[in-house]
Amino acid sequence: IEPVQDETRVRYRIDGVLHTSIVLPRYIHSAVISRIKVLSNLKIDETRLPQDGRIRLTIGGRSVDFRVSTMPLLNSEKVVLRILDTASGLKNFAELGFVGHTPAIIEENLNKAQGMFLVCGPTGSGKSTTLYAALNKLNDEGSNIITLEDPVEYYLEGVNQSQVNPEIGLTFASGLRSILRQDPDIIMVGEIRDVETADLAIHASLTGHIVLSTLHTNDALGAIPRLVDMHVEPFLIASTINLVVAQRLVRRICRYCQTEAKVPAELVDKIKRTLVELPEAMRAQLPRGEWKGGVAPRV
C-alpha cells in the first residue's frame, strides 16, 4: 500500500510478480495506514520510524495472519502486509516440490542424532516453509522441540514456539542461550544473522542437539564461506553441518493458459547434450514421457 503522486496504489505480489489491484484517492491514505496500525497494535503517531506488527483475522471461516511492516517515506508512509494462510496446513517435502532422491536425503539427515540442517536462499524463497516441513517430520511425543522465530509464522501443536523481541532484549542470540537451558532435543532458529548466533548454534549442534536454521546465501556452497565470515572455525563447520539445502521458488505454467510452442532445433540439441553429461543418478530422476503442464502456484 504505497502513495504515488496524487493517489494510493495497492499492489499484490502473486507468484513473484507485482500486480496493481486497486487505486485509491490520496486523501484517504493516512486513514488506511492508521487503521492498519490500530489492527496491528502499532503506534499511530509514530511516522518517523519503521514499525513491525501482526494482524490475525478470520476471513470466510479461515484464520489468516498478516505480517505488517511500515516504512516512512518523504512525505508519507508505506505499508507492506505479508499474508500467511495458516489454515492451509503444513506440507510435506513432496508437496513442496522436492522430487527424486532429494526428500530421502533430507529425511536421512534429519534422523541423525545431532548436527545442523541449513536452508539457504533469498528472501521469500520458502526457507521457513521448508523448516516447518522438517519440524513437522521430527515432531513426536518423545522429542522436546523449541523454536525461536521472527515472527512465528505457523503454529505447530506439540512444539514450543518463541518469538524474538529486540525491544526488550530477546534476540536470536540471547534467546538461543536460554533455549539451551530448556533441555531441548531439537532447536529451530529462524535465521543465523550474526557472529554470536552462529557460535551458539554451532556449539548447540556439537553437544547432542539437532539445530535447524536458515542463511541468506545464493547457493548451498555459499553457506560455508558465510559461516567462516562469521568467525566459525572450519573444523567446527565440518563437524556439525549435516546438510545444506538451497532453494528458489519458480513459476509454473498455468494449465489453462498454456499454448504449444515450437522449440528451435539447436536448442533441442543443446538440451540433449546437457542431459547426456548429467551423472547417471541424476538422469534416473528425469521425467519419462510427455509433461502435462502445471498450475499457477510456485514450486
UniProtKB/TrEMBL annotation:
Pfam families: T2SSE (PF00437). InterPro entries: AAA+_ATPase, P-loop_NTPase, T2SS/T4SS_dom. GO terms for cellular component: plasma membrane. Residues 180-194 form the Bacterial type II secretion system protein E domain. Keywords: ATP-binding, Nucleotide-binding. GO terms for molecular function: ATP binding; ATP hydrolysis activity. SMART domains: AAA. The keyword Transit peptide does not apply. CDD domains: PulE-GspE-like. It comes from the Bacteria. Belongs to the GSP E family. This is Type II secretion system protein E. It comes from Candidatus Magasanikbacteria bacterium GW2011_GWA2_46_17.
